[in-house]
Amino acid sequence: MSNNLLAGKVGIISGALNEKSIAWKVAQRAHAEGARFVLTNAPLAMRMGEINKLSEECNAPIIPADATSTEELEKLFSGAQEQLGGKLDFVLHSIGMSPNIRKGKHYGELNYQWFQQTIDISALSLHKMLAVAEKQDAFNEWGSVVALSYIAAQRAFLDYTDMTQAKAMLESIARSYGQRLGKLKKVRVNTISQSPTKTTAGTGISGFDAFYEFADKMSPLGNAPAEACADYCISLFSDLTRYVTMQNLMHDGGFSTTGISAEIVELVSAAAGAQE
Fold first, then answer.
1. Domains of the chain, each with CATH number or no CATH
2. CA 140 to CA 149: how far, in whole Å?
3. What is the pLDDT of residue 116?
4. 193-238 per-position pLDDT tens digit
5. How far apart are CA 247 and CA 149, in angstroms?
6. Cα angle for residues 273, 264, 207 (degrees, 5° grid)
């Protein structure tokens, strides 16, 4: 059901690869709520994904851009304003990739050149986006930027390796740039720390299925699905959250504030009993 929460608003949505992507769901919900937007992704990701299908569904133009390249981001933001006929009201940063994870490197044997690539792709890309937007004066007042994060920014998780540092830096950039853009243009910048989600990127992490089940049993409400995360993004793009900024917002069914659940106690007790 649409409430026209984004009627008249325009923006950029990055990172939609296929129907499993949170960014894909955000685009569908933004379209349903009356927004117009440009879709963007790295050229390689676009060749791997199905973004043309989403473009047709949402009547959204595509501007390819490598988010690690300031020059390509400049073309993205200027091109989006041309396509949409004015300054932007929202941006979704849904960009993250670790060459170390893709190549199966554990935390003790990281390739440091790849580590730097992880940081550049997954965190510094947000700073570059916002710096380009600031220089172009690309935002309308009361605009909104949302970047997708994960609780590994605050906690240690096996097999999340260097993405842990990338997400911590992402959240720090959101706070620092949130303060800056808030003073300059009343633009708010937030991150959403989402439950484990069965996206292409998420399922590429070793042990993902086991942790997905663990988090689901730990969370009083269960894991938040991608569709619910999209709803949360829409609320942050809307005028209903004008004074929410510089926050890392937990969208995880209560996982982040649960000590232990009855389901986990039962599993541990059953395992201990089996060993006796």
1. 10-275 (3.40.50.720)
2. 25
3. 98
4. 999 988 766 656 667 788 889 899 999 999 999 999 999 999 999 9
5. 11
6. 100
Q: From residue 204, how far is each of 20, 168, 197, 198, 275 by CA, in Å?
A: 13, 20, 11, 9, 32
Helix axes 22-32, 51-58, angle to 10 degrees: 10
Helix (H, G, I), strand (E, B) or coil at 62: strand
Distance, CA of 94 to CA of 104 (rounded, Å):
22
SS3 string, 74-108, reads: HHHHHHHHHHHCCCEEEEEECCCCCHHHHCCCCHH
pTM, entire model: 0.94
* Distance separating alpha carbons of residues 130 and 122, to the nearest angstrom: 14
How far apart (Å, rounded) are the C-alpha atoms in residues 142 and 31?
20
Confidence tier at 67 by pLDDT (50, 70, 90): very high
Q: Among candidates 265, 270, 256, which has minimal Cα distance to 219?
A: 256
Q: Which of 39, 36, 64, 72 is nearest to 53 (CA)?
A: 39
**What percent of the residues of the chain are helix, what percent strand, and what percent coil, each to the nearest 5?**
50, 15, 35
In contact, 196 and 223? CB cutoff 8 Å: yes
